[in-house]
Design goal:
It comes from Candidatus Tremblayella phenacoccinincola. The protein has helices at 27-33, 67-72, and strands at 2-6, 17-21, 52-54, 80-82. The chain is α+β, with helices and mostly antiparallel strands. The chain has a single domain, classed as Roll (Ubiquitin-like (UB roll)), CATH 3.10.20. The longest helix is centred in the N-terminal third of the chain and has 7 residues, at 27-33. The two termini are 18 Å apart. The model has no long low-confidence stretch (mean pLDDT 87).
Length: 92
Amino acid sequence: MITLIVLPNIYLCPLGLLLTAVGDTSLCDLMLNEGINVPHLCGKACVCSSCIINIKQGAEAIRIATNSEKALLVTNRSDSRLSCQSYLGKVC
């Protein structure tokens, strides 16, 4: 089980939130299920970058980015990921 801290965001989650999750769940789905209205204009198909998030800590608990995801990350921040493609748990 993994505990995630969603930092406060004035538009999406003003008070922040503590989430608990198990593996093989996307961060986008996890946040949507908890009522955080994460933008996902492409329907989580990895063809836009509206669901971009920044991982501040614990990136090792998230599967590595695919080439498709990397192509959509238009930022120079090394902690940026697409929440729809950020799945908990490593692929062996």
